[in-house]
Amino acid sequence: ERPVTLHELAKMRAEGRKIAMLTCYDASFAALLERCGVDMLLIGDSLGNTIQGHSSTLPVTIEQMAYHTACVARGCSRPMIVADMSFGSYQESPAQAMRNAASLMAAGAQMVKLEGGAYMAETVRFLVERGVPVCAHIGLTPQSVHQLGGYRIQGKTDESARRLFEDARALEDAGASLLTLEMVPADLATEVTRSLTRMATIGIGAGKDTDGQVLVLHDMLGIYPGRTARFVRNFMEGAPSIEAAVTAYVEAVRNQSFPAPEHCY
Ligand code: KIV
Ligand code: NA
Asked: Hey, which residues does 19 pair with through a beta bridge?
């Protein structure tokens, strides 16, 4: 099958075909997720939790992100590979972001993801103009957990909802290809998605009307030992194998049966 490119993503968005994304941290799972039809693999800095056992994503380094990106890239060929920029690897300046994004691209990433709203627009533009596709990430941004005061729903007040629209607009104008919306009310995510003209939205705890969905692999397989959020569904329940569970996830994203109302805010 043809590799998933920016062109293909734009087509999926235009045709209303939902994008199925999962996190992935190694080659064996990359091959498995590819076989199940997952469109995009995210080397998330959630590996700080799932792989390293930390209680946040803050300790993860860019070298560790590059290592896991290379592992994933060796395992598959069709899915688009998106790598998270780790905390502290892009906030200083566009030049710092470019230097560290380059290490992820050299490791096999085809897009980098970074957290933050309008204030990151200058950096997004800098990367995009230099050949690095960008996925932005707003709403609950786990690298800001201490500033946010916990892992809680965002965009609940009129003021923060308005800021979410402004952030999305600024990031789209700066050239971001994709926007992750995490833990925001479903209605708000629907409106933000509709307000955009080009950038596709990927939801996690953001309702079923975003252009795609993402979950942390260990959460959707029910193997994360910590607490999981309301938006998680354990696809291993009733599934005879990991492949069946992942295939069910892809199918549920495509037919919009996931997320169901009980997974939404
Ligand atoms: O690190 C991660 O896994 C993520 C997704 C949950 C969006 O950023
Ligand atoms: Na992340």
From this structure: 212
Q: Cβ distance 84 to 67 under 8 Å? A: no
| Cα distance between residue 16 and residue 18, in whole Å | 6
Alpha helix (H) residue ranges in 156-216: 158-174, 186-195
Among 213, 211, 209, residue whose Cα is nearest residue 232 = 213
Tell me which of 182, 243, 251, 262 is the catalytic residue.
182
Q: Is 22 in the pocket of ligand 1 (CB under 6 A)?
A: no
- Spans of all domains in the chain: 6-263
CB-CB contact of 232 with 220 (8 Å):
yes
Q: Per CATH, the architecture of 6-263 is what?
A: Alpha-Beta Barrel (3.20)
- Tell me how far the alpha carbon of residue 131 lies from the centroid of ligand 1, in angstroms: 23
The reply to whether ligand 1 has any atom less than 6 angstroms from the CB of 214 is: yes
DSSP at 39: S
- pTM of the shown model: 0.98
137: three-class secondary structure by DSSP: strand
Q: Is 216 in the pocket of ligand 1 (CB under 6 A)?
A: yes
| 182 among known catalytic residues | yes
Token output for 186: 């479903």
Please count the CA atoms within 13 angstroms of the CA of 42 that sit on its side-chain side: 31
Nearest ligand to the CA of 216 is: 1
ipTM of the complex: 0.99
Bridge partners, 23 (sequence order): 42
Q: Each residue of 37-85: pLDDT tens digit?
A: 999 999 999 999 999 999 999 999 999 999 999 999 999 999 999 999 9
* 213 pocket-lining for ligand 1 (C-beta < 6 Å): no
